[in-house]
Specification:
The complex is a heterodimer of chains A (about 240) and B (about 300). Chain A is an alpha/beta fold. Chain A has helices spanning about 45-50, 75-80, 95-105, 115-125, 125-130, 140-155, 170-185, 200-205, 220-225, 230-235; strands spanning about 5-15, 20-30, 35, 60-65, 65-70, 80-85, 160-165, 190-195, 205-210, 215-220. Chain A is about 35% helix and about 25% strand. In chain A, the strands form two sheets. Chain A has a six-stranded mixed β-sheet, sandwiched between helices. A four-stranded antiparallel β-sheet of chain A has the order 2-1-4-5, with helices on one face. The two termini of chain A are about 30 Å apart. Chain B has a domain at about 25-220. The chains are: A alpha/beta (about 240), B mainly alpha (about 300). The structure holds adenosine-5'-triphosphate and magnesium ion. Magnesium ion binds next to helix 1 of chain A. Adenosine-5'-triphosphate binds next to strand 2 and helix 1 of chain A.
Chain lengths: ~240, ~300
């Protein structure tokens, strides 16, 4: 396996006594978009939360930019540039859109760049600029996803962990989120993208992993996975 | 009836209310960020009051200066309580299951210890001192200087707190942690640090309120408890975890109490406060103001 910006090795993790990952390894190359595929409950979110430091793995190693970080807290990982855009958005409902964005720059390295970050977030999502004084809880699902993305970008990430960013969104809005992801990649961000929409995800991914019941069952370039008959039957419904 | 409409009474209500605003803030912060029920909170008011009392009596230091010492001391006690006790409580999986109840018992014990230590050290006779006790006339309103000073200080401090919560990155982080703990972790907020800060601000502001209070009223080792109760009433009134709602509710309780006492009798003061408490719990348990649900 090639050395990556993020390298997970033999991760065992879960909730309480129930493990959701049973020894998963994965590498995300610098500058790539890496897809993480799998059906409901396969362990995608668990993997991303483990990488972000929200969950502590029972076993396994996590390396970022060559340094072991398995013991680091979530805030320290954000300081190193690992930022999770969580499933379900997790917006602060009673803070305004702008406050949500500002607090995204909590990490010390991001704090001096709040003004630049706000400008960039509003340029990327003009809808947020229109709603900057509105409280986060009053936004639509699509707007909340934009806010979650914008808030994550405020932390000046090097690696974005995106957990089902288009879940439950109207097709047009989902499409615009994918456009933003491609734009971010073009700006040099590295992205690990968990999605159920395998076809569209593999179309923009350089590389992909498939999880099944907490175990990695397949990996390959986007094109390879797209052409694989098993993937086709399991995730693309062809 | 004339007395009820006087500026005098309104001024008294604002002074009482503004003290409640400061005292209740800390209770709300510590509950909102960590779900800890601090029934020893009023005792920080007592400690602050004694700090200013002794510094004034022994060295003549103005309470308007010693309030900073009182705040620093109680803030340090807050940090100590967090690091020594509550950090462990929060980290323990079994204890966290019944966090509210466990914290209430712990703080109750702390409160008893603090009150008894204070009465051992200072005995329980009520104490007071005279400072800025001239009456100044503003129009036909006659007010003592120390009350005016207290109102100015609480007003400025409240404004600073509002601005802090609105603009400072740590103010935003406190609100974020109160609204959504997991999301706060996700965006990289140093939860540990924000929790210590909540203890320090909450305790420190209560200590400062005590210092101000010592200029105006008699102090005893047991003066804290009524403030704990008042703070709980304010926090329920403003909506648990709603900091700005709590500040408005503090003023409201000051007004209700002062006018209620003026209309009835001073002996009914606690009946009034408990009455408001029970009424709100029965009629609007989510709080009079705000009334939004807090996401855990
Ligand atoms: N908070 C939790 N507590 C206990 N079990 C959980 C929790 N979250 C997830 N699980 C379990 O862990 C397993 C993996 O879940 P995970 O959320 O990682 O899957 P996923 O691939 O992200 O699925 P989805 O596509 O539905 O988001 C599932 O069996 C799930 O039921
Ligand atoms: Mg998931």
């Amino acid at each position: 396996m090639s050395q990556g910006l993020l390298q997970l090795t033999d991760i065992v993790a879960g909730y309480g006594d129930v493990m959701a990952l049973h020894g998963v390894s994965l590498a995300v190359r610098d500058g790539s978009v890496t897809a993480l595929l799998g059906s409901n409950g396969a362990g995608k979110s668990t993997l991303l939360k483990t990488a972000a430091g929200i969950l502590t793995p029972r076993r396994g190693e996590i390396a970022f930019d060559g340094a072991a970080i398995a013991g680091k807290r979530a805030s320290e990982r954000v300081e190193r540039g690992i930022v999770l855009i969580p499933e379900g958005r997790l917006i602060f409902p009673e803070m305004s859109v702008e406050e949500n964005l500002r607090v995204g720059a909590f990490a010390p390295h991001a704090r001096p760049h709040v003004a630049r970050g706000l400008e960039r977030a509003y340029a990327l999502f003009p809808r947020l600029a229109e709603r900057r004084r509105q409280s986060g809880g009053t936004l639509s699902g699509g707007e909340q996803q934009m806010l979650a993305l914008g808030r994550g970008l405020m932390a000046e990430p090097r690696l974005l962990l995106l957990d089902e960013p288009t879940l439950g969104l109207a097709p047009l809005i989902a499409q615009s989120i994918f456009t933003v992801i491609e734009r971010l990649r073009a700006d040099g961000l590295t992205i690990l993208l968990a999605e159920q929409d395998a076809r569209r995800t593999l179309a923009i991914a350089d590389y992909g992993y498939v999880l099944e019941s907490g175990t990695g069952v397949m990996e390959g370039s986007g094109a390879e996975l797209l052409a694989d008959p098993k993937i086709n039957s399991a995730y693309l419904g062809l | 009836m004339q007395a009820i409409l006087s500026w005098q009474l309104l001024f008294a209500a604002l002074v009482t209310g503004s003290i409640y605003v400061l005292v209740a803030l800390g209770l709300n912060l510590v509950y909102g960020t960590m779900r800890l029920l601090n029934v020893a909170h009023g005792d920080m008011v007592m400690i602050g009051a004694y700090v200013s009392y002794w510094l004034f009596t022994l060295s003549g230091l103005s309470p308007l200066l010693s309030m900073l010492i009182a705040a620093a001391l109680t803030a340090a006690l807050g940090a100590l309580a967090y690091v020594g006790l509550f950090r462990r409580l929060l980290a323990n999986r079994q204890l966290v299951q019944r966090l509210e109840g466990n914290s209430l018992l712990l703080f109750f014990g702390i409160s008893i210890v603090i009150q008894n230590l204070a009465s051992l050290a200072f005995d329980s006779t009520p104490r007071a001192y005279q400072y800025l006790d001239r009456v100044v006339a503003i129009g036909n309103l006659g007010i003592t200087e120390n009350r005016l000073a207290a109102l100015i200080v609480t007003g400025i401090l409240s404004l600073v707190i509002v601005l802090f919560l609105r603009f400072h990155i740590y103010g935003l982080a406190i609100k974020a942690l109160m609204q959504h703990r997991e999301a706060a972790t996700v965006v990289g907020i140093d939860v540990e640090r924000v929790q210590i800060l909540s203890f320090c601000i909450g305790f420190g502001v209560a200590g400062l309120a005590g210092a101000l209070l010592s200029m105006m009223e008699q102090i005893t080792p047991f003066m804290g408890f009524p403030f704990t109760i008042a703070a709980f009433v304010v926090v329920i009134l403003g909506g648990l975890g709603n900091l700005l709602g709590g500040m408005a509710a503090g003023l409201l309780l000051g007004i209700l109490e002062t006018y209620g006492v003026a209309l009835t009798s001073p002996s009914l003061r606690s009946v009034l406060i408990y009455g408001v408490f029970i009424l709100v719990l029965l009629v609007r348990p989510q709080g009079l103001l705000g009334g939004k649900r807090v996401v855990r």
